[in-house]
Amino acid sequence: MDLEIIILSEVNQAENDKYLLHKPTDNEKTYVFLPGESQGQGSLVGCRLWGHTESDTIEDEPPLLEELGISFDHIWQKTLTGLHPLKVADGSIMNETDLAGPMVFCLAFGATLLLAGKIQFGYVYGISAIGCLGMFCLLNLMSMTGVSFGCAASVLGYCLLPMILLSSFAVIFSLQGMVGIILTAGIIGWCSFSASKIFISALAMEGQQLLVSYPCALLYGVFALISVF
Amino acid sequence: MATPVAPAGGARNGAGPEWGGFEENIQGGGSAVIDMENMDDTSGSSFEDMGELHQRLREEEVDADAAAAEEEDGEFLGMKGFKGQLSRQVADQMWQAGKRQASRAFSLYANIDILRPYFDVEPAQVRSRLLESMIPIKMVNFPQKIAGELYGPLMLVFTLVAILLHGMKTSDTIIREGTLMGTAIGTCFGYWLGVSSFIYFLAYLCNAQITMLQMLALLGYGLFGHCIVLFITYNIHLHALFYLFWLLVGGLSTLRMVAVLVSRTVGPTQRLLLCGTLATLHMLFLLYLHFAYHKVVEGILDTLEGPNIPPIQRVPRDIPAALPAARLPTTVLNATARAVAVTLQSH
């Protein structure tokens, strides 16, 4: 990392702080002179170590979350779309690949399984990775426009949320009776319906919702199998 | 004052892409001020100038290197002059040819788009094909149509995997070397791909009119019967029910496949060979799937409901425990055997 030197200009001190940012080239020794705060020449005060990406003033920097691409509003919108099966999905919200939400949901799913005494984080992540890969291949084969892996993983991850409800129910009550079977079937249907609805609207595959929802149902069925047994 | 610094920008443009953003931000923000002209530092070796100087020196160096490289003889692996040039050209050509071949092969074999036409289906089509797979057609005089699609068969194989997993979980199967998921996937896909290939090979020997894709589709849809039977009998554990379904549902789907193959094969021997093999393998697979994961359940039930076994059980030497104790002379039996005999007698 290069040393980035900040020098306060003496001329316009009264206004907002103005900085000179100078990136020294390699093998160059530089000194910083800060008026009013320096302890004489040669002192190194107010020096910041920065990488090459930030080259602007503090005020002009975008907020950290925006730089990282995490937008809470979008995450919330996608979560609501995944949860509400009858809400019409906007195809464009899935254009941006966001894996932060799905990662958190997988972790939450594993945590609720842990509460039920099943330590199966590996299975959850393994099955979700393989399942996403399978759905990615299938959707690329079935749709006219392709889909990226991130988009498929993001959609499947967001629609995993009802499964977390099932596994948290399994913490207290056993799912192996008739009530459990009906609840499991309902939740699987809910998850796969939401996922297929978003895929259909994003890929313009009208009339094939059943064909897309069945593989999603199989994938979520495997997750349900982990929750129930 | 928001005067952008021209020399700084000029010097920095050569340094790399990171400097371009700096200039943009100056014009947009207005708060990054570099006003070197107004700086009080008149030492002559200001930072800007130093930076500029260094950059210029470095660029000159790079240019000199490049010029020197061109002017040089162009050594290639230690061979100078004409030989070096020639060998470099040959090496380049070989590299280009190799790259072209590799990219052609990759685009041919790793191109998933080859399979695209086989997934172009409507839900109504899939539904009708699923129902037709259970209905054998009697007309064997002319070749029957086989739908060449892979969506239905693939989904049926995955469904079979899911049902198998469910069965394994309910019967508490423990697989020591591997995972349940891996075993289920291996079994189902192995059957679908392996038996399809084998029957296709036999069809080639028997001169039957069927392609590999059609064979895959036929066998895939034939697994629909298996899915139904296993789904019902993994949940209702009745042997008689299973045998009934095995003959009825399994038999229907097998008959359908056999009828299609017969319509596409000429000659009685060939027909017998091909259809006999397919029917045997298909029916035996269903039998295997049911009993492989069902036996464990039965074994556990027998153990739990069997006769009460005492907690400490020592096997007597040379004396079979099944013999009634009265027949053996008491002097032969040791204390342990006597205890066991007594226990057995009480039952």
TrEMBL record, chain A:
Statement: the UniProt record of this protein carries the keyword Nucleotide-binding: no
Protein topology in the membrane: Multi-pass membrane protein
Residue ranges the record marks as coiled coil: none
TM ranges: 123-143, 155-175, 181-203, 210-228
Cellular localization per UniProt: Golgi apparatus membrane; Membrane
GO cellular component: Golgi membrane; trans-Golgi network
InterPro entries: Yip1/4-like
Main location: Golgi
Record keywords, A-Z: Golgi apparatus, Membrane, Transmembrane, Transmembrane helix
Any one of the GO BP annotations: vesicle fusion with Golgi apparatus
Family, as annotated: Belongs to the YIP1 family.
Name of the protein this chain belongs to: Protein YIPF
Organism of this sequence: Moschus moschiferus (Siberian musk deer)
TrEMBL record, chain B:
Bilayer disposition of the protein: Multi-pass membrane protein
Family: Belongs to the YIP1 family.
Protein name: Protein YIPF3
GO cellular component assignments: Golgi apparatus; plasma membrane; transport vesicle
InterPro entries in the cross-refs: tRNA_Mod/Golgi_Maint (IPR051521)
Main location: membrane
Keyword Hydrolase: no
Domain of life: Eukaryota
The protein's role, per its UniProt record: Involved in the maintenance of the Golgi structure. May play a role in hematopoiesis.
Low complexity bias locations: 1-10
One GO-annotated biological process of the protein: cell differentiation
Stretches for region Disordered: 1-48
Subcellular location: Cell membrane; Cytoplasm; Golgi apparatus, cis-Golgi network membrane
Protein source organism: Moschus moschiferus (Siberian musk deer)
Entry annotated with the keyword DNA-binding: no
Transmembrane segments: 150-168, 180-203, 215-234, 240-260, 272-293
UniProtKB keywords: Cell membrane, Cytoplasm, Differentiation, Glycoprotein, Golgi apparatus, Membrane, Transmembrane, Transmembrane helix
